[in-house]
Design goal:
The protein has 496 residues and is mainly α. The chain has 19 helices and 5 strands.
Length: 496
């Protein structure tokens, strides 16, 4: 009985910590954090960099990508601290950047053009990958095994730049579905500012989705030796098909895609309760996205998605009967996985905030075991996660490089850890670069805006370049955070 009372006390205390405390906290400079979170993507660019690229230590790279196969695959993003262009996480990052702009762009102010540029850089590459060869989708550039055996600046890389594709004989519905979602979501971003470009993106999205659905299969099976273990699609491809159809409906308002959702939703996982969202698993995010149609437009047949979205949200709300214990560190950070946990923090934060927006527009609440949770409660929960990332945590450390007085200085990132080509014009070879990986000092180049893998289950963090599980940045960590940062930059006076 005493143990039960103790657990109840901890649960109640955690509830107050996560939902009530943020309203009393001193505001961070969310506008500055937003600007830096977008600048990070300029440091991840591959290809010919435009004038004014705001990561001044970066230079052009990968200028012949695809040339040996007579296709143009120049551009796009490096996923993390390496020099490979992986299609699945790149497409996911582009989708999340586009969703951020679509739902929270009105709060971005002067950063909106930069956010659109970040979306376009990813969408331009995905458009090339989807249209270069009829009946095929290019999904990767670079030999990951050879790349990871070197520590090279992207400007110096001389490892094989092989290209990998899926087609009718080697299907990849997972990566194709995510690419279709990214192109569709990006088309929404440019619907008013560049209608012709938006139309091209939407047309390509429709074609890629048709390919993904017609030739079903996982790219982890078709290209196992090349994409695994780096970005295997562990959740399969069903979630990406439903995700893509949902984005195509939002982008086109074509009833065909809603008919697809209603006809195949259960077959594609709509009935599953799931509690994490990542570059691999889109199930819960699809439900939140579809709930928007139910809450804002009263579209019939989507009640199931609202119900499952409620279950997911309630699992994160301490003090309710639906709360799943063990999902937070003692300091209040959402905790899902030991490796690169911050990716699950930023995706959950995005979904909580987006759902709060949809609930508010529909004048609805979430019922968590008989207790109503209002949109404002979800905003407070999301703010606690954002504030933890920016420095309100037991260590008093920002996990965004370049933000705040104390932040990680040894990101696991090749370009940031080595002298820039301007400071050291001479080539640094594959093996020679490892001296910089193992150096004790801070990185010579600040990877502005990068959010790293983050602390462990006990709020401990090792600022060690060799500890990639905690110190490596990734586009798919940053992309979901852009929307929440924009929201708080634009509304903090109201919620603080």
């Amino acid at each position: 009985m005493e143990g039960r009372s103790s657990r109840l006390f901890v649960t109640v205390a955690l509830f107050h910590l996560l939902l009530l405390a943020p309203r009393l906290a001193v505001a961070f400079n969310y506008a500055d954090a937003l600007a830096k979170s977008i600048i990070f993507f300029e440091g991840q660019r591959s290809g010919k960099l435009p004038p004014g690229n705001r990561m001044p230590w970066r230079a052009d790279s990968g200028l012949t990508d695809g040339a040996q196969h007579n296709v143009d695959l120049v551009g796009g993003y490096y996923d993390a601290g390496d020099n490979v262009k992986f299609g699945l996480p790149m497409a996911f990052s582009t989708t999340m950047l586009a969703w951020s702009v679509t739902d929270f762009g009105k709060f971005m102010g002067a950063q909106l053009p930069h956010a659109r540029d970040a979306v376009r850089w990813g969408a331009d590459y995905l458009l090339k990958a989807a249209t270069a060869t009829p009946g095929a989708l290019y999904v990767q550039v670079g030999d990951p095994g050879r790349d990871h055996a070197c520590w090279e600046r992207p400007e110096d890389m001389d490892t094989p730049r092989g290209v990998y594709r899926v087609d009718a004989s080697k299907p990849g519905s997972d990566v194709a579905g995510e690419t279709a979602a990214a192109l569709a979501a990006s088309s929404v971003v440019f619907r008013r500012s560049d209608p012709a470009y938006s139309a091209r993106l939407l047309h390509a999205a429709m074609a890629v989705f048709e390919f993904a659905d017609r030739h079903r299969g996982s790219y982890s099976d078709s290209l196992s030796a090349d994409v695994c273990p780096y970005y295997c699609s562990y959740s399969g491809y069903h979630d990406e098909l439903l995700w893509a159809a949902s984005w195509l409906h939002r982008a086109s308002n074509n009833a065909t895609y809603m008919t697809y959702v209603q006809a195949y939703g259960m077959q594609l996982g709509a009935g599953d309760d799931d509690y994490s969202f990542s570059w691999d698993d889109k199930r819960v995010a699809t439900k939140v996205l579809l709930s928007r149609g139910f809450l804002r437009r009263k579209l019939q047949g989507l009640e199931l998605y609202k119900s499952h979205s409620d279950s997911y949200i309630c699992s994160l709300v301490p003090g309710t009967s639906s709360f799943q214990a063990g999902q937070y560190t003692p300091g209040g950070l959402i905790y899902k996985e030991g490796e690169s946990n911050m990716q699950y923090v930023t995706t959950a934060t995005f979904l909580v905030l987006a759902y709060a927006k949809y609930l508010k527009s529909g004048r609805a609440t979430v019922s968590c075991g008989g207790r109503d949770v209002a949109p404002a409660d979800l905003v407070a929960l999301a703010k606690r996660q954002v504030d933890y990332i920016l420095g309100k945590n037991p260590a008093g450390r920002s996990y965004m490089v370049g933000f705040g007085a104390r932040y990680p200085e040894r990101a696991h990132h090749r370009g940031a850890s080595m002298p820039s080509v301007r400071a050291h014009p001479g080539r640094i070879g594959c093996d020679a670069g490892f001296q910089y990986l193992h150096a004790a000092g801070a990185n010579p180049n600040v990877l502005t805006g990068a959010v790293l893998g983050g602390p462990d289950a006990h709020d401990s963090f090792d600022d060690d370049r060799g500890n990639y599980a905690q110190s490596e940045p990734a586009t798919y960590i940053n992309a979901p955070l852009v929307g929440p940062l924009a929201f708080f930059a634009g509304t903090i006076k109201k919620y603080n």
